[in-house]
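Retro notes, item 3 of 5
We never archived the inputs for the zinc ion complex last cycle. Fixing that now. Sequence and ligand:
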Amino acid sequence: MQQDSQEILSLMLDDLHEDLNKVKKKLYVENKVIKDPDEAVVYSWKMHLSRNQSIIVDLMHGLFKSSIFCPLCKQTVVIGEPFCTISLPIPKNQTLYFLMYYVPYGTKELPIRFELNIAQSTNVKEIKQKIRQLIEIDEQTSIMGLAGYHLKRIFREETTVGEIKKDVEASSQTTHIMLYQQKPENVILPLMISFEDELTSEIKQISYVRILSVNKKISIAELYIEVIDYFWNYVVEIHSDIHKDSVSDPNELIKRLLLTSEKTKVEELLAPYFELFIINNKGELIPLEYSEQKLLADLNPTSLNIIWSRKSRILVSQSINKYEEHKGHIVEKNPELHITLNHCFKFFVSAETLDEDNSWYCSQCKTHVQCTKTTTIYKAPKILILALKRFKNFALGQKNKVFVEYPLTGFDISGYANIPIPKYNLYAVVNHYGNLGGGHYTAFTKNELNDKWYLFDDSNVKEVKEDELVSAAAYVLFYKRED
Ligand SMILES: [Zn+2]
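Structure as it came back at the time:
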């Protein structure tokens, strides 16, 4: 069988360490059970150092903080685990299926529902590009997650489908993924849609939140105009008998209402349609007084609530939840694989259920159980050695040849650690070509003196350009911490 470079490397570093180990007489240390998680991790590092002291430890050993959750007794045990290389699993780029609603700005057009079946590594930015194959959307559309009728989260451009799905599933309520059209250069203001229950006087949500795009500097009067405009087709319909032909916009409507009534308060004139409230940071509902002087920014609302009148309720509740089903849907049978080193790290630190071969002895249950394990980096070594798990199934001789993109400089693993860690720069790569049965190794290394990269291929050595360094052949990566 062919020698595995990662195995050889581990053996070599171990032997080298033992030869250089300043601790000649290793004392037996008992495993202490420590309740405090951080103390437990620090203790395991101390124990490691009491038996191991060499330049290899100083430069290359790090420490994982692993939390092991026993599904039987629901107990979590935290341990520290020293490491010299990190074997990173390569996540499968599976496709995920979900429904998405596109919500146009205003109620003149119906929302559109469509199906997506896309690679889990696709991010929000890429999702939007794909959606453009089906419908026209602006730059200003945002993907948001709803829990029930409430806005739960606005997903950032780099959030992946896998993360969205995970976030959605973490919510116990019914969750929807929405794509909201917005206006450019504005702040968003969630708008709850409700009516008052006749029997209980309770304010009930009748639809999912809508998103207003407004300028923070607008007056309350302008905000009223914005809301009337958003629901203009409803407003026209509700009082069709009087205004349909003669009134063409919200400003005119307000002027007309002021002319034809003895009431002078605009919010009272609008009450046959709806009442508008702001929701403050305590979650309280406060009536919104119409004012041309007062600014929205002065009130600092978290969201708005529109409460439709009894007269409007039937029309609104009949139309507000309607949507159109888009006949086309986006299905990727063979998603383009674009996996980055960050995906591998995220996958590595996320919870995994230990298989039978790696089952954990739970001291509480006094038996081996298949626990769930999550890992974070507690101590990051100066030299970080990462091996991509390309050889999953030795028996079958299978190799995962997927391309994993990795950064040459500024690799940041702080997100997978409990502590801020300086960034890492790549200085060497071991490449493997072919399969497990018969393959070929080469290596790239950077010459520290001239800052140039070289390829080592058997007896040949030649200079290479930086853009040749990242390939699907990469197997072991060597990074050096910046500090
Ligand atoms: Zn247990």
